[in-house]
Amino acid sequence: MIAATEPLLAPRRALVAGAILLALGTAIGALGAHLLKERLGPDRYAILQTAVLYQFVHALGLLALGIVELRVPRRGLRLAADLVLAGVLLFCGSLYALLGGAPRALGMLTPLGGLAMISGWCVAAIALVRARDPS
């Protein structure tokens, strides 16, 4: 029974993760605009805006990957979604943590997150090029 539903878990994971990241991005963006803007100062507020922007864009991308994977199930698309999700968590998460006072050493995760997002989109492109027309 698990084998029959397993193919739906990966697209669902991407879709749920995208929706949750959009909700969190909205909340963090609102919190930043209404409560933190003056406290952070211009440079740190710009970092917050960058993190929120990347979170939104890649969350929408996760939704798109999940939808595409429902029509074109490819292992590469699953890997791509996992890489993008990991990248968002590392990139945006490390920026949020740094803004919250985490040790500067945590900033080493930011470029790793960026590389994971880039890798995810490259893997997605390769998977889509290799995919056969489902119609």
What can be said about this structure in brief?
By secondary structure, the protein is mainly alpha-helical. The protein has helices at residues 2-71, 75-99, 109-130.
Number of strands: 0
What is the gyration radius calculated from CA atoms?
A: 17 Å
Low-confidence stretches: 1-5
Please describe the biggest sheet, giving its number of strands, its sense, and whether it closes into a barrel: none
Give the termini distance in whole angstroms.
27 Å
Count up the domains.
1
Inertia-based shape: elongated
What would the average pLDDT be, to the nearest integer? 90
Walk me through the structure.
The chain is mainly α and 135 residues long. It has one domain. Helix content is 87%, strand content 0%. It has three helices and no strands. The protein has helices spanning 2-71, 75-99, 109-130. Helix 2 packs antiparallel against helix 3 (109-130).
